[in-house]
Amino acid sequence: MSLVIVLNELCAGLMLNELWIKRRKLKEWIKSKNFGWFEGHAPGYPSTNNALEGTNQSIKKVHTFRDRIPFSHFLERAKIILNRWSTDQVTIKKWEDEPMIKDAYWFDALAYAQKKPFLKYDKTCDIYLLTLDKMVDLEQYLDNLECDGDCIDECEFVSNLDLNTFFRYNDSVRLVKLDEQNWKFSSCSCRDYLKDYMCQHIIVVLLSKKSIQVPEKYLDSVIGCKPRPGRNKKAMPWNVRQ
Ligand SMILES: [Zn+2]
After folding, report:
1. How far is CA 17 from CA 4, 12, 14, 62, 150, in A?
2. CA 202 – ligand 1 centroid, Å
3. How far is the CA of 58 from the centre of ligand 1 (A)?
4. Strands 118-122 and 173-177
5. CA distance 41 to 205
6. Which residues does residue 127 pair with via DSSP β-bridges, in sequence order?
7. ipTM, 2 decimals?
């Protein structure tokens, strides 16, 4: 077999492999009946079961001593556990009345604003498109949002992108929808928003509209004369004198 044939076979194999990965990801992440493995699939619900594991740990610590016990003892122990831990599960308990604005979001927003992002308002969708990439075509980006997923296999634009490029393109623009009543309930298309219900992009849009002002305690970071408070220094190895 000549070198050219081997290379052709190899290229074809790689292309097929890439196509297979693309289709596999498409099948698992978008078209599977178990789709939804992403932050923000169920807004308002916990994205980890840490709270549940905390309860489990307390039960283990207080009631089991991590020993095997006879079944009759276990039933008695289970009754005690139920009696102590089975509480009202019907009443909805609110953790917060509105999203918490972390310091990091203010600092990140101020740093983002200094990069002079491009902001465009789309009246039809009532959203702001925010990007640092001046080359991206925002009209086309909006058009692509119309895609309902059924046509993704035939989509001329998306079919030319590999998955990583597609994600980069997707992340190059943030869509921010403002809440006129309470800006803290505004939304964004980024991951931070899906996790914390707040992000730097919302703050950047509001600052550019002059709807909010930078709290005084963050103003130093605008001038850049002081280091950010609250951030830990990078840990040095144990044997390095600091
Ligand atoms: Zn965002």
Report:
1. 20, 8, 5, 53, 23
2. 6
3. 36
4. unpaired
5. 24
6. 122
7. 0.99
In tens, the pLDDT along 164-218 reads 888 888 899 999 999 999 999 999 999 899 888 999 999 999 999 999 999 888 8
pLDDT in tens, 118-152: 999 999 889 999 999 988 999 888 888 777 666 76
How many CA atoms does the CB half-sphere of 226 hold within 13 Å?
Answer: 11
Integer Cα distance of 236 and 139 in angstroms: 48
Q: Which residues surround ligand 1, an ion (CB under 5 A)?
A: 174, 188, 190, 193, 199, 201
Residue 237 Cα to ligand 1 middle (Å): 35
Residue 111 identity:
A
Tell me the pLDDT of the chain averaged across its residues: 78
Amino acid at 58: S
Query: In this model, does residue 228 exceed pLDDT 60?
Result: no
At position 222, the amino acid (one-letter code) is V
Distance 84 CA to ligand 1 centre (A): 42
Contacts of 36 (CB under 8 A, 6+ apart): 42
